[in-house]
Automatic annotation (TrEMBL):
Residue ranges occupied by any Thiamine pyrophosphate enzyme N-terminal TPP-binding domain in the UniProt entry: 49-131
Thiamine pyrophosphate enzyme central domain mapped to chain residues: 220-354
A GO molecular-function descriptor: thiamine pyrophosphate binding
Organism this protein belongs to: Allomesorhizobium camelthorni
GO cellular component, one term: acetolactate synthase complex
Name of this protein: 3D-(3,5/4)-trihydroxycyclohexane-1,2-dione acylhydrolase (Decyclizing)
Length: 615
């Protein structure tokens, strides 16, 4: 008979997590970099006590907001290219439901996240307990059920032995290149404390290596034929290139076959910004170089991309007759989008398989020349908008200042508002992973917590967080956590006094300025929010600057700071970069009393004629 050890369910869970390992650059490391925890009555006595027992091998981190904890955990996994991850535990009730937004973020971005919320009593004797949500027609429902649709795997642990198969399934999902996403194990609070005789073998150390699925022969034949028949091919590099660690393979592939590369927000930094075949961002927030080539392309090799609407210009970007998309993706759902030729495989393995079959095939010299000329034009346009002026600074001018002060070696973190579009176009990314943008779910409030997760994953990186005042107001508490943990961030807050990005979209669709900028919202008094003083109150070094020149000086001074620095600058809410870009489908009302809306609707109907399903 196999040997057993008597542990509570929570003790078995934490001991198991501490024994899961990964291998990076020849070194064996714990797969889980730690557990984020805010304790409450649903987890303090069970998993809280269990985490204390393993605190040396599986560190526990405390934050100030459950959603912020999960954002930090997601950023940690993203910065590690999904090779390492973190878990998050909360109490029942609001602590658990605060995880929903973060779970959706991880789901959309295909990132591993283990959620361990406390749950109601499995024995139901004390029902209804504090914070319990009761369904009057279903006794099995709890608030944690709201996590079901945003989890790639969900389970509720109602008996201590159930944790054994549940963790086995959880690990398969968290480490699978196609299924990867958030896992929720809802832990009934009485079951956390119940003991069971677990097999000792359950706690054996296990090494998880990334799976690299190879392409199907017939799919590979079709993809090779499409590329060999093309005269104007392009590559779209998505996040899968980074997660597959395929950047060097992509570079060699593009160079050998003369194929221009354009990057999604998730895939930016797949090639260095100064590589001659890197055309920069693509789509709605694309460079003029990328979008010019995308409109002419006859074959689009989409590598590791979900092909969301910002990438495809709401499926109006690819205009050539008979254009074909080859979807190289580990997830079949993504590989076959819009009738693409699917090539279901790991990004690195798929590129290597294509390379072996393409031999010496190259795209026409004239196509490469067109690409390089387009990039030269784009770089001139980008420089023009990022250079400083004497006006109230634009987002682009702030981006230019940050880059001049800290350079492409910095790791840039952002998520929402107008900045993602400007950064996607204008930030010159260096090494793989140095551009950390959460734009799959575009979550306001991710930025600072995400920056902390990146710093935990990459402690030697110069991590710079850029965000607007709107995102700062939504979630800023993890500034205090970064100070507490000694993880220095440089945070640049662009204060345009409201939601400037959506205000511009409102205006573009014919709407009146309403409820976005503070001055256009219902108010008695307009608040004068002192973001620098607020950040200082949480322990950060804080500066308010009045110009681009002052910003550059402050950024250089902040390099010498020993703790998190927050730099605040006022910006213009109405200016955005006109160069590049593409139409985006945002529905405009068919009927309105405003002539501006009616005009916008007329223009909208014309633009919709550009949309098509690729066939």
């Amino acid at each position: 008979m196999s040997k057993t050890i008597r542990l509570t369910m929570a003790q078995a869970l934490t001991r198991f997590l501490a024994r899961q390992m990964t291998e990076i650059d020849g070194k064996t490391l714990p797969l889980f970099g730690g557990v984020w925890a805010i304790f409450g009555h649903g987890n303090v006595a069970g998993i809280g006590e269990a985490l204390y027992q393993v605190r040396e091998g599986l560190p526990t981190y405390r934050a100030h907001n459950e959603q912020g904890m999960a954002h930090a955990a997601i950023a940690y996994a993203k910065a590690n290219f999904r090779r390492r991850m973190m878990a998050v535990t909360t109490s029942i009730g609001p602590g658990a439901t605060n995880l929903t937004t973060a779970a959706a973020l991880a789901h959309v971005n295909r990132l591993p996240l283990l959620l361990l919320p406390g749950d109601v009593f499995a024995n139901r004797i004390p029902d209804p307990v504090l914070q319990q949500v009761e369904d009057f027609s279903d006794g099995t429902v709890s608030a944690n059920d709201c996590l079901r649709p945003v989890s790639c795997y969900f389970d509720r642990i109602t008996r201590p032995e159930q944790i054994v198969p549940a963790l086995s399934r959880a690990m398969q999902v968290l480490t699978d290149p196609a299924e990867c996403g958030p896992v929720t194990l809802a832990l009934c609070q009485d079951v956390q404390a119940e003991a069971y005789d677990y097999p000792e073998s359950f706690f054996d150390e296990r090494l998880w290596r990334p799976r690299r699925p190879q392409p199907d022969a017939s799919e590979l034949d079709a993809a090779v034929a499409a590329l060999k028949g093309s005269t104007k091919p392009v590559i779209i590099a998505g996040g899968g290139v980074l997660y597959s660690e395929a950047t060097a393979t992509l570079k060699a592939f593009a160079e050998k076959h003369g194929i221009p590369v354009m990057e999604t927000n998730a895939g930016k930094s797949s090639l260095p910004h100064d590589h001659p075949l890197n055309m920069g961002s693509v789509g709605v927030t694309g460079s003029s170089a990328s979008n010019l080539l995308a409109e002419q392309a006859d074959v689009v090799l989409a590598v590791g991309s979900r092909l969301q609407d910002f990438t495809t210009g709401s499926w109006a970007l690819f205009k050539a007759d008979g254009v074909k998309i080859v979807g190289l993706n580990a997830q079949a759902f993504d590989a076959g989008k819009h009738r693409a030729l699917p090539l279901v495989a790991d990004a690195k393995a798929g590129l290597e398989a294509l390379e072996a079959r393409l031999n010496d095939w190259k795209s026409p010299t004239a196509w490469v020349a067109t690409a390089k000329a387009a990039k030269t034009d784009w770089l001139a346009a980008a420089k023009a908008v990022t250079d400083p002026t004497n006006a109230l600074p634009s987002d682009a001018q702030v981006i230019g200042a940050v880059h001049r002060a800290r350079g492409s070696k910095a790791t840039l973190v952002c998520a929402s508002g107008g900045l993602p579009g400007e950064l996607h176009k204008l930030w010159p990314a260096g090494a793989p992973g140095s551009y950390h943008m959460e734009y799959g779910y575009s979550t306001m409030g991710y930025e600072i917590a995400g920056g902390l997760g990146v710093k935990l994953a990459r402690p030697d990186d110069d991590v710079i967080v850029m965000l607007g005042d709107g995102s700062y107001m939504m979630m800023n508490s993890e500034i205090a956590t970064s100070v507490m943990l000694g993880r220095k961030l440089t945070i640049v807050v662009l204060d345009n006094r409201g939601f400037g990005c959506i205000n511009r979209l409102q205006m573009a669709t014919g709407g009146a300025n309403f409820n976005n900028l503070l001055k256009d919202a219902k108010h008695e008094v307009l608040p004068e929010i002192d973001f620098a003083a607020h950040a200082a109150s949480m322990g950060a070094t804080a500066r308010k600057v009045a110009s681009i020149a002052e910003l550059e000086r402050a950024l250089k001074e902040a390099e010498a700071d020993t703790k998190t620095s927050v730099i605040v600058i006022d910006t213009d809410p109405l200016i955005s970069t006109e160069a590049g870009g593409h139409w985006w489908d945002v529905a405009v009302p068919e009927v309105s009393s405003r002539k501006e809306v009616n005009a916008a609707r007329k223009d909208y109907e014309q633009k919709r004629k550009m949309q098509h399903l690729v066939n």
